[in-house]
Structure to design on (227 residues):
């Protein structure tokens, strides 16, 4: 089955700096990669996703890159703000296959 | 709130008791998923329904766990003879059919504590 590894497990950045979270996956059939943000005590919320037919996707301060050959994908947050502080999860699945495999999460702390 | 809802939000039970959780998906979503999340970990897939049919079950779902979605709308997850290791957050998610079917929307979860 799919295995998703995520690094780092914790990340502290100064407000305004960039944050990068990296994930690797094992199943070459995976072709959909969502990223979720989970604030303490709240539900995971989708913040951005990427499909395997593109290499990069951007939405305001958030971008995701995908390297299919190396089987890794990354989340980039620029100009971080205190409200970006949360746990971020990467995930992988394939279209038509409903099981989503999540990474272990990265706790991001943005220091004002 | 038109999002995924779950009930109860918190449940404390004694070991050996049975518990049942409910999930109401987004109304037009025909796919429904159950996950379990323990502290410091990502959600782990338990099972998946398309309409009323349970199409996939994880090996994590022991015989003590059963899930139903009788009319293809809300779903229930029952845990029989609870054990302390069952303590976790149980998350439900739903997704629509079609191009965005991979995008899952999560409910707030039910936090279970087994004493």
């Amino acid at each position: 089955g799919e295995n998703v590894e995520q690094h780092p497990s914790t990340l502290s950045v100064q407000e305004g700096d960039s944050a990068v979270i990296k994930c690797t996956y094992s199943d070459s059939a995976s072709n959909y990669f969502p990223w979720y943000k989970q604030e303490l005590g709240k539900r995971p919320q989708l913040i951005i996703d990427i499909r395997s037919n593109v290499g990069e996707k951007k939405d305001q301060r958030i971008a995701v890159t995908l390297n299919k050959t190396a089987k890794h994908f990354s989340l980039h947050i620029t100009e971080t703000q205190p409200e970006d502080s949360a746990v971020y999860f990467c995930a992988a699945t394939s279209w038509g296959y409903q099981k989503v495999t999540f990474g272990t999460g990265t706790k991001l702390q943005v220091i004002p | 709130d038109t999002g995924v809802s779950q009930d109860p939000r918190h449940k404390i039970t004694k070991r050996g008791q049975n518990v049942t959780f409910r999930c109401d998906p987004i109304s037009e979503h025909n796919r429904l998923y159950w996950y379990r999340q323990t502290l410091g970990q990502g959600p782990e897939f338990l099972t998946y329904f398309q309409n009323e049919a349970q199409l996939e079950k994880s090996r994590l779902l022991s015989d003590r766990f059963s899930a139903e979605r009788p009319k293809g709308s809300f779903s229930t997850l029952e845990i029989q003879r609870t054990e302390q290791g069952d303590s976790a957050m149980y998350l439900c998610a739903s997704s629509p059919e079609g191009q965005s079917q991979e995008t899952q929307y999560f409910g707030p979860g039910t936090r279970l504590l087994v004493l």
Notes: Chain B has no helices and eleven strands.
